[in-house]
Amino acid sequence: MKKKLVVFTGAGISAESGLKTFRDTDGLWEGFNIYDVATPEAWRKNPEVVQDFYNQRRKQVLAAQPNEAHKALAALEADYDVHIITQNVDDLHERAGSTRVTHLHGLITRSQSDINPDLTYPIDGWELKMGDLCELGTQLRAHVVWFGEPVPMIEEAAFICSSAEVFVLVGSSLAVYPAAGLIDFVPALSPTYIIDPVIPKVKNSHQVIKIQKTAVEGMKDLMDLLI
Predict the structure, then answer these.
(1) Catalytic residues
(2) Disulfide check for 13: which of 105, 183, 184, 215 has CB 3.0–4.6 Å away?
(3) Can you tell me the distance from the alpha carbon of 29 to that of 184, in angstroms, rounded to the nearest whole number?
(4) Does the predicted TM-score (pTM) go above 0.85?
């Protein structure tokens, strides 16, 4: 039976595919204050601006390609029972070939009902228009968890982490909660590999192997260690 390998990925892995993260620019995301485009209050105040912001992000995601780090994680499925938990709203893991991906913060290539986040739909292309309605007759928005909203997949992700035999953290600063707390559910005896140019602090009880490199370069080292 294959060992269960749980991988937690953050913005650092997608940055090498050209997708930017607001945490690299002092709270600005593509020139926008995150609270002007990533909160329920912003949506109520100026839905057209928020809709356009995510349309542009979606266009970038669709133009981006999985990088070698994404592909390496997909390749690990040949030797491990790989479960990916990601903070990222892009679909690069899936396009690289990973088959078990849990999106904590939603998926930008899907839309959701303005009043029922459980109603989600695929988006044809990059543009979601004002006037596009869900089956309940209300406006569709990006299927993204905003600041101040609950993270519906957090309990499932915690359960996945609790049974990890090997845990890998790639490209996350562990700065956004509740996602950052998932590492605390990993069994203390399970080896934990951290790949990032700046290694975040984790509790001393974990067996931490630090790979202080970018996602692409660090995954090459990890493949040598695991296979």
Answers:
(1) 105
(2) 215
(3) 29
(4) yes
